[in-house]
């Protein structure tokens, strides 16, 4: 079967419109079907317990004090502390049992004989098993008592501090804010056990698993898990058929003139683009050092190898887990994004032999802007969380949502940076843009970069006062669609561009391969975001939709892995192929993408597994393997390619990069498979045999076997830190052996550009 580029482009356009319609309708339903925030929660005598405004203020306190990067809400966030929804539901059930035991039997719940205890349990379940029909929420006497007790416990825990839980003193700076945070958590617990109108299950599809409150997996979770397994087999068959039916060109070094690094002139703009690399390396090193500290926090909740005993200061008070986790996540995004920005501006001259006027100066300006936004954003996080920014905390400080921690102003700065990058990329690619159709390779690069910026705008559709379910709807547009949509698109486009720049593929051939893979990514990954909506209060329709499209996401990942392996095999067949190190990283990226996003992602996204697993260490394994393994390694591969072209061949030394490569791969494998995943499977068992709150409890983490597995992470983390330190040192070392740039090289001097521009 032969497909033309124009045909694939039309199908992509149809897929884009289809995605837009589905997700646009989903946005409308998000507002219509979100769990209601009542005007008031009233007690049995009609007295006001909580107002809707207090619930919204509690969400503000939750975000302002960075609690989403300490624990989680509705299963989303950090796994160091409790999940606040599950914890509030557990405490509510516990205190209601205490109330009824005292009222009916005049004794403690724990002292009751089995029969009477079972009777109390049934009364509590009956209280919790209700349907909301509008108006105020009406509490029973037991619920009122429980709510009051949870408020005081949250004041003690999150305001006064609890070092055994890893909570610093004054984490929430006032008792009022702590009580309002409790009100917010209790509201999420309420809609997790209250039936949606006209339904036999709660707003969260009975999540979290809490047998004592009557929450258990729905039939839909089982049904659609089976459907997903059937689709996986069918999808594998479809993938085999597609790859055997659609003839795509394979890269080959045979008979081609692969340009040697010394044959390619270096433009001033490329030297400027290369300056992104040391900045990104510094951010990368800071990120992995913080990652090591975060891992150790699970062992010593308020200490660091006894330092607090020597100096009398708990590191927890200086650098709380929530701030360290926030910086760790943001630094990971920033160093990868900075590398991609640099690579996207380095590659155009390789294809065009074109240097726009003042391009180097503009690129330097973009780098300076990135540095300002980085310093401002990271500094604002600390200032906002510590109360120095007043009411501007969510604008200039920390918005307090995982992966969207920096304030709105800094987010706007990042968006503006993407816009400037697009303008500079257009300037650099103009000779190609003028000659090729709208579905050409250069256009694909711009579409991929533009889609990243477009999806980022979803982060501006909510404020701290927005319903948490709606907030989560838009937040996952940014987080997941970047990963499964825009970034995957960007990956295949950049790899195609790189192969063309090496003369390993004709431009037309690369365009067809990139467009086909972009079609598969767009057709599955965008709507696949909906598997994040199952337990956060979104409509039931997302269970079947999310199950189907999350399963199909595996297909393009298999293709990407297959192509990466084929590319590397073709390269190694030529003994004198000069770019083996960049291709090592590309292949590693494909493998980790398949393992992390594909295998581990598919496993945890089966609805029935995800019901019990959601927000456990299995997700940690998936996230690290997918984020660093896929996007990190590909960014590092681009760095090695850029460096090799920018250094005199006789002075090129790739030994340190090879050492870093193996440190990273072995370290990541040890971390994921020896420590993180085993903890996740133990956690899954604890949830399944007890409750979700049990699996996320401090008691679970303090078990000897779990603590041993946390210690087992040390070798892997050490290798990753060592590899990053070697890499950062190598970047500094290589800065002193860079070639000088040509002020105005001719196209004839650009061995790569001649073939590309002539490929019409």
Instruction: Please mark out the parts with pLDDT under 50 across 5 or more consecutive residues, or reply none.
Output: none
Count of alpha/pi helices:
30
Query: What is the percent of helical residues?
Result: 55-70%
Biggest pleated sheet: 3 strands, mixed
Number of strands: 7
Distance between the termini: 23 Å
Keywords: Membrane, Transmembrane, Transmembrane helix
Pfam families: COX1, NorB_cytochrome_c-like
Domain Cytochrome oxidase subunit I profile: 461-673
Transmembrane segments: 12-31, 221-243, 276-299, 332-353, 365-389, 409-426, 438-462, 482-502, 514-535, 541-562, 583-604, 624-647, 659-682, 710-729
Polypeptide structure, described:
The chain has 760 residues and is mainly alpha-helical. 68% of the residues lie in helices and 3% in strands. It has 30 helices and seven strands. The protein has helices at residues 5-33, 52-64, 84-105, 114-128, 141-159, 175-193, 219-245, 268-274, 276-297, 307-311, 315-318, 321-346, 348-352, 359-385, 393-396, 408-435, 441-456, 468-501, 507-525, 542-552, 554-572, 580-605, 607-613, 617-646, 655-689, 692-695, 698-701, 704-711, 713-734, 751-757; strands at 40-42, 48-51, 72-73, 76-77, 137-138, 398-401, 404-406. The strands form three sheets. Strands 2-1-5 form a three-stranded mixed beta sheet.
